[in-house]
Amino acid sequence: MRLSFSALLLSWLSVASGFTAPQRRARFFTTSATSSALQSSTQENRSNTSSTSRSDFPDYGKTPVEIDKIRVEKTQKWRRKDLFGQSLVEQTLAGMEDSSTKPKPILMSKEERTLRRRALNDLGVKRFSDFLPANFDRKLPTILQLNIGLYCNQACDHCHVESSPLRKQEMMTAETAAQCLDLLMKTPSIETLDITGGAPELNSQFRYLVSMARSMRPDLEIIDRCNLTVLQEPGQEDLIDFLKNHRVRVIASLPCYSSENVNQQRGNGVFERSIAALLALNEAGYGKDEALGLDLVYNPLGAFLPPEQGKLETVYKEQLEENFGILFNSLFTITNMPIKRFADFLHRRDELKDYMDLLVRNFNADTLDTLMCRDLVSVGYDGKLFDCDFNQQLGYGLKDNLSVFDIDSFDLREYKIRTDNHCFGCTAGMGSSCQGTTA
Ligand code: SF4
Ligand code: SF4
Hints:
The chain is α/β, with parallel strands linked by helices. The chain contains 15 helices and ten strands. The strands form two sheets. It has an eight-stranded mixed beta sheet. The chain has a two-stranded antiparallel ribbon with strand order 1-2.
């Protein structure tokens, strides 16, 4: 009986990867050393088989012995071009209403939220300020982080800004965006413009900010905090080209390499869309070309600290390349902050106190010098100034609620950093910031 190589290969792949044969239907490709041997065996095969059979797998005796040079082409199943132009918003809104699969968010008034915030301090944990050295001051800023709006096509469980498709009001205006650019030009110490949201790309000022900043400061690092699925929203079909043409670094959330975990945290269908988006970014050169950085962000699913960043990055790289053919540069691990939607999540599960204890227990003094707030300026959609995006969401503004219209540059060293007990989220373990660990 003639041995069917393709059947053997496919069944082996199914066992090895957990994929079924149709999902993982593979085609051979090889390095140059083996390609000619496989090519001639393929041509021979073609003349011996009917036109309908798969004739690109070499028969018995034709497989080169240099098996380390043989590669298996990645599955095409995840290249979902059909998703581009299809909005996720309706599905997100349906998910927000579906109380059978998700607990309803706790609706709280401003007063209740203030009480909740104070409750963090009443949990019996130590005060963050007791851990700070006397010289805990602000430095010259190197990062300008603009949160340009809270509208998002997703509504993730852990979202510290509580974004969703319902947040249509909170959007940066053209006047505020122009003022931010003016101040950026007056603050040459700033090396990075970090644009976040919501889904910042869905704000009308996003492209204006990026293109103006790129032309005014060719040396500037510009970051787009991208949720990946935004690339498929109608009207965003040219977004990848726009980002590429302006050398924007993409930092994207992907809290796991398994669909179950990602969909649980970020909504049904988000994993499949995220993988399709990452493949499209790779295709454009992101994660491959030096000038087109693509980084991923991991944050824990529940009340635990992230694993070691370097080790997790290795696992992410193996899993994403092996299963989907995805390449990326770095993985950043971020600790969930006990505020907003994640605080509600902990509260519902009666885990807030235990989580705070965990953060305090793992306080690491080595993280203090590189905390984000030391050299970052955070600006809200309305132009208000903050120490970081977390303080922004808590409404902890700079003295007298300063805004971009009250200052001459982003050098804010005269103003004290406003810390509170949520700050333990930045100092636990190896530290946490928008660019991963800090110690
Ligand atoms: S975590 Fe990001 S993607 Fe999810 S709702 Fe918040 S802003 Fe949107
Ligand atoms: S949460 Fe606190 S420690 Fe962390 S960056 Fe903001 S102000 Fe600094």
